[in-house]
Design brief:
Helices cover 66% and strands 3% of the residues. It has helices at residues 2-12, 17-30, 43-50, 54-66, 84-89, 99-123, 126-144, 150-162, 167-176, 197-215, 219-250; strands at residues 70-73, 77-80. It has a two-stranded antiparallel ribbon.
Length: 258
């Protein structure tokens, strides 16, 4: 009986309202939507945006200030300040078109996202699961209409990170940024020759396996599905890198960054 009660308490646990606000604003700061030195919206505006009380907003701002992301200036408002994660975020903007760097980023993502998928399978609440599903079906809609899917692909992975209820998974993923999503045409490693419809259909099949495992509350299968997904991306990039090197050795092309 005690064990059943403990499980029930863990499953029913909902993040505090202030935690949701903190996660949202942290993501905006780390993604660059709010730049260093920029003033955040007023307390009244944040209250309206998030549909919460002033007390919740104040608690969230206090948490962000304690984390070193923002500072309150008397009579002026709350401002974004420089923080270590921004240096980490800059990595994704300095990678150029080197495929070997894309492989390094995928390796880091494996270290983060495999475990986040497993945690999401056991910790997510109904609202978080709904956000993962929404991202999945939006990817499907964009795929059917032959539109770019990179941003919603990132949203899918970010929703899984958020469902761990550990804000640091989201923070690290935000710091890596959406440019690390291979199927995004905005990615430095995305090309029309690679980003075919069939390629993205394959990605969506991999997403479905992850989603099904999370929805089934099966952490081992969720980890395995995420590992398979990211490993497949690694293999695709290794094949591209090997192809570039072969072209150069045969004198077909010029040496490329790798």
């Amino acid at each position: 009986m005690a064990s059943e009660t403990a499980v029930d308490l863990r499953i029913e646990r909902r993040p505090k309202l202030s935690e949701s606000v903190v996660s949202a604003i942290r993501g905006q700061v780390l993604s660059g939507e709010f730049a260093p030195g920029q003033k955040l919206p007023t307390e009244s505006q944040l209250t309206e945006t998030f549909g919460v009380s002033r007390t919740v907003i104040r608690e969230a701002i206090a948490t962000l200030a304690a984390d070193g992301l923002v500072e309150a200036r008397q009579g002026a408002g709350v401002f974004v300040i420089n923080h270590p994660a921004q240096a980490f975020a800059a990595i994704s903007h300095e990678l150029g078109n080197k495929i070997s760097h894309a492989l390094n980023v995928l390796e880091v993502r494996m270290g983060i996202e495999i475990e986040s998928a497993g945690l999401a399978a056991t910790r997510r609440n109904s609202a978080q699961e709904a956000r993962i599903q929404e991202a999945f079906f939006e990817f499907e809609r964009l795929l059917d209409s032959r539109q770019a899917t990179g941003k919603v692909d990132f949203a899918f992975h970010r929703a899984i990170a958020a469902a761990t209820n550990n804000p640091f998974y989201v923070e690290v993923l935000d710091a890596l940024g959406s440019r690390t999503i291979p199927c995004d045409v905005a990615s430095p490693w995305g090309t029309e020759s690679v980003l075919t419809h069939e390629y993205q259909v394959g990605l969506q099949r991999e997403h479905l396996a992850i989603l099904n495992a999370i929805s089934a509350s099966d952490p081992d299968s969720a980890r395995a599905a995420m590992r398979a997904h990211l490993s497949a991306s690694q293999e695709r990039y290794r094949a591209r890198l090997n192809g570039q090197q072969a072209e150069y050795m045969l004198g077909i092309g010029k040496p490329r960054s790798s």
